[in-house]
Amino acid sequence: MQVGAASDIGRVRGRNEDALLVDDDHNFFVVADGLGGHPAGDVASRTAVETLDRHLDDLSRGDPADALVSALRAADDAIRSEAATDQRRAGMATTAVVARVTDGGEEAWVAHVGDSRAYLVREADLRRITRDHTTGGLFGRGSITQALGTGDGIDPDVTHIDLVPGDRLLLCTDGLTDMVPEDAIAKIAAAPDDPQAACQRLVDAANERGGVDNITVIVVEV
Predict the structure, then answer these.
(1) At 118, which helix (H) or strand (E)?
(2) pTM of the full structure
């Protein structure tokens, strides 16, 4: 298994409110995007990643789908608890997309809350795994309908995927997908570059198109 990861502030924002986690020992990967327009988005995304990291051992036991949902709910609780301790952080929230891959790379489980996405790259094809939790849903952009930390409760979607050698999983924030059309993402992600080079090329493509948001990507090749 090969993994690449990159996170970039972009060309407009004053700080990077995205966060990521790559844990090769557990084959566990996270991308989180602190919500723009909310206070302390960077704290929210970082708290989510740190909480999910603490639940890694739980992910190796029991049903993987249930474990991912439990970990995301723990992250939701942690963000709300953190916000309650500091009025300046009240209302902070973040998206999250997480993936757990089996040791042999034959299967993966993907869970998400919000509009950060996961894709399966198989040969030249790009298939979106996640459905945005927005008023626009699958086919359009809109306001986010659920996120970690909002206090409205979360209902993560979980998808199981059978993988074959050469498949790639792409996790990303909307700083990529709002800037780069999916056909261009597919060409870059399916190119014979190593995963780290693919990540950098995806970030570059978003910045070349304006880079109006932070950009974070993880590419996992099995």
Answers:
(1) strand 117-122
(2) 0.95
